[in-house]
């Protein structure tokens, strides 16, 4: 993984701030969602490059504030899901920190199963799987 991180650092174009932010109600924000398998906090390989690019952007823009929010599906107890959401958020935090983001920029939160995108009334398991995620939200201060 370090070899991959090093190659991204040396080849990543960081002149992307204008295209990364979208206008929100009163702040400009950028969000990246990383989805996980059930009961897992292993980052799927398909997200590594995007997380690395996002992390390099954060590291090179110290004026940004970052919230890393861990979420889970509704299977299991609230306590279990808060802990799983925290583990998911922590693994993303470690990647971002390794690539140079200042810990003062970052806030880590676990919501567990408390704020799902989709509720358990939805029958489509693919839609429910979208609750198993970490949202990385950057905003300008």
Short description:
The chain is α+β, with helices and mostly antiparallel strands.
Characterise the protein shown here.
It comes from Candidatus Kinetoplastidibacterium desouzai TCC079E. The protein is of the alpha+beta class and 141 residues long. It has one domain (20-140): 2-Layer Sandwich (60s Ribosomal Protein L30, Chain: A). It is 36% helix and 23% strand. The protein is built from five helices and five strands. The protein has helices at residues 2-11, 17-20, 48-59, 78-98, 125-128; strands at 22-23, 28-35, 64-71, 106-112, 133-140. A five-stranded mixed sheet has the order 1-2-5-3-4, covered by helices on one side. Strand 1 (22-23) and strand 2 (28-35) form a beta hairpin. The chain is elongated, with a radius of gyration of 15 Å. Mean pLDDT is 81; it is low at 1-25.
SSE blueprint:
Elements: H1 2-11, H2 17-20, E1 22-23, E2 28-35, H3 48-59, E3 64-71, H4 78-98, E4 106-112, H5 125-128, E5 133-140
Parallel strand pairs: 3-4
Antiparallel strand pairs: 1-2, 2-5, 3-5
Main location: membrane
Domain OmpA-like: 23-141
Subcellular location: Cell outer membrane
* Main beta sheet strand tally, sense and closure: 5 strands, mixed
What is the second-level CATH architecture?
2-Layer Sandwich
* Separation, N- and C-terminal Cα atoms: 31 Å
Give the overall pLDDT as a whole number. 81
The CATH C-level name is Alpha Beta
């Amino acid at each position: 993984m370090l070899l991959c991180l090093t190659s991204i650092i040396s080849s990543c174009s960081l002149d992307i701030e204008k295209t990364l932010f979208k206008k929100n109600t009163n702040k400009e924000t950028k969000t990246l969602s990383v989805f996980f398998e059930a009961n897992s906090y292993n980052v799927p390989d398909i997200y590594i490059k995007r997380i690395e690019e996002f992390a390099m952007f954060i590291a090179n823009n110290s004026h940004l504030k970052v919230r890393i929010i861990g979420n889970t599906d509704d299977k299991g107890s609230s306590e279990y899901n808060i802990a799983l959401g925290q583990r998911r958020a922590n693994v993303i935090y470690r990647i971002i920190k390794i690539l140079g983001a200042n810990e003062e920029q970052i806030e880590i939160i676990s919501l567990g199963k408390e704020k799902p995108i989709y509720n358990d009334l939805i029958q489509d398991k693919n839609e429910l799987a979208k609750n198993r995620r970490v949202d990385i939200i950057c905003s300008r201060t």
